[in-house]
Amino acid sequence: MKKAISVIMALILVSSVMIVPVSAEEADATVSVVSDLSYVADYDRDTPVIIVHGMSQNDTYLLNEDGTRMKDSNGDYITGWPLEIDIMGLLKEALVPLLKSVATRSDAGLTEAMKRGAYEGLYAIHKDAEGNYLTPVEVPCYEYPMSEMTEEIKEYYYKMLPLQGLAEIVGEENIYYFGYDSFGDIIGETEKLNHYIHDVVLPQTGAEQVRLCNISLGGTIGVNYLETYPEDYHLIKRMLFVIPAIDGSDIIGDILTNNLSIIHDDEVLYGQFLPSLLGDTPLAYFLNIVLRILPTDVLKSALGGLAEGVVEAGVRSTTIIWALCPTDYYEEARAKWLSEDEYTLVREKVDYYMEARANFERNLYALKATGTEVFDIVCYGGGMFPLCREYNVTNGDGIVHSTSASMGATFADVGKTLGDDYVVAGTYCDNPDHDHFAPDGTVDPTTGLLPCTTWYIKNQDHEKLPNNDVALKMAFDIMTDDNIKDVYSRPDVYPQYNEGRLVHIAREYLKIW
């Protein structure tokens, strides 16, 4: 039963969003890398790199009243992120109404019980209406480079992100890992990054500039930083976005508007969702049978209640999660969750962020005008995780829809092309010598803000990008090699379009395996 409840919770938990775990797997897709012996890399080994990580790539510890880290009955630390879930609390709330609903073939309080259970089960992220944690938390952010971290901390971060190859280029003394709260305040975390640059990295290194690498959820902090600190533009030598959620994620949009596919689409609810979550396993199909015991309308109502319980537990007052709400969803979601007076502070912060997003194009080009070089790496070619209402239509990497990650590029729907009669827009690049159009006819990068400095990786899952050794090496080189200016700098090795790939990462980049 605990396993079953865990799976049901996973239906709507935002913990499925933006997570980039590291594992080593094999896949059939391969990419050959052509060596160019005449090319000599011009690595910048003097400008420090700041990694602004993705969701779940930094712990958040719950604290006791005396400031010590809270532990559970097994002696393990209780973490607010990754999410600590009280499964038994949900079970206690939902079990009796579930049995009554099965017996009566009606909603015998199940929807409200699931809502309460989800809320209580996510006690670790409970916040008040102004976004303050009800239980104090500690978010580690080490104000020194990786070279000064303990081996235990260093190993933890290398497991979060395989940065060993980058360390071999610039040295661990030039890599700073900016730790922030994945369930924090987008305004506060942006201020912390400003402090980190001015009061930590630049004084410690003596450098005049930094290089920023904004990954996934970290892209939202990048968007807000450009809006809030234009006076810092000259301090950023290079800025690399990696699968960034520039316009959020449709998963969050559908959660905040209660527009989930599992509520609206019976085929997803009964046939696709659990196998996609658990794989093609007997457990997945067994749980599908269990779901059919309840009438469909009762089950969908209960899942809707569960989703609302998750939002009310902490998402409602968490501005960095609101930063993942796509622009097209925002007005509806804002009216649903933030219209009451008690949420005025949260609403004002989120409105500020949405204005930053609206100004992103202006800010990005102002940044480039100061001499900063800006790059982007995007995954595409698949759909979205089947929580999204249009999961099998929207082009994405499973977690972030590709239009968001590419800063506005145009994509065909999943399984289709833009058509033989499609005319490349040329909005941000009308150079007749530049052919950015995807070879398979599915992408027009010229409607994106950076058509000449954006690379596309086809059929690459968001969470498995760290397994792609070619993408890793490309990211490291873009961050550090001053000879790489755009997609034409090394087309033999890093063409604008590449294929997804899962391999055992080269030994020189993952020595811990």
Task: Please tell me about this protein's structure.
The protein has about 525 residues and is of the alpha/beta class. It contains 18 helices and twelve strands. The strands form three sheets. Strands 5-1-6-7-8-11-12 form a seven-stranded parallel β-sheet, with helices on both faces. Helix 5 (about 165-170) packs parallel to helix 18 (about 470-480). The two termini are about 35 Å apart. The model is unreliable at about 1-35 and about 505-513 (pLDDT under 50).
Order of helices and strands: HEEEHHEHHEHEHEHHHHHHHHHEHEEEHE
How does the overall form come out from the CA principal axes? globular
Sheet-strand content, in percent, reads 5-15%
Count of DSSP E strands? 12
Give the biggest beta sheet: 7 strands, parallel
Q: Tell me roughly what share of residues is in helical segments.
A: 25-40%
Distance between the termini: 35 Å
User: In which order are the strands of the major sheet placed?
Assistant: 5-1-6-7-8-11-12
Multimerization status: single chain
Radius of gyration: 23 Å
Task: Figure out the total of helices.
Answer: 18
Low-confidence stretches: 1-37, 503-513
Main attributes of the structure:
about 525 residues; seven-stranded parallel beta sheet; 18 helices; about 10% strand; disordered N terminus; disordered C terminus
Architecture blueprint of SSEs:
Blueprint: H1 2-10, E1 49-52, E2 60-62, E3 79-81, H2 87-104, H3 110-121, E4 137-138, H4 151-160, H5 164-170, E5 175-178, H6 186-205, E6 210-215, H7 218-228, E7 236-242, H8 250-256, H9 261-264, H10 266-278, H11 282-291, H12 296-313, H13 319-322, H14 327-337, H15 344-358, H16 360-369, E8 373-380, H17 402-405, E9 410-411, E10 443-444, E11 454-458, H18 469-480, E12 497-499
Parallel strand pairs: 1-5, 1-6, 6-7, 7-8, 8-11, 11-12
Antiparallel strand pairs: 2-3, 2-4, 9-10
Helix pairs in contact: 2-3, 3-12, 5-18, 6-7, 8-14, 10-11
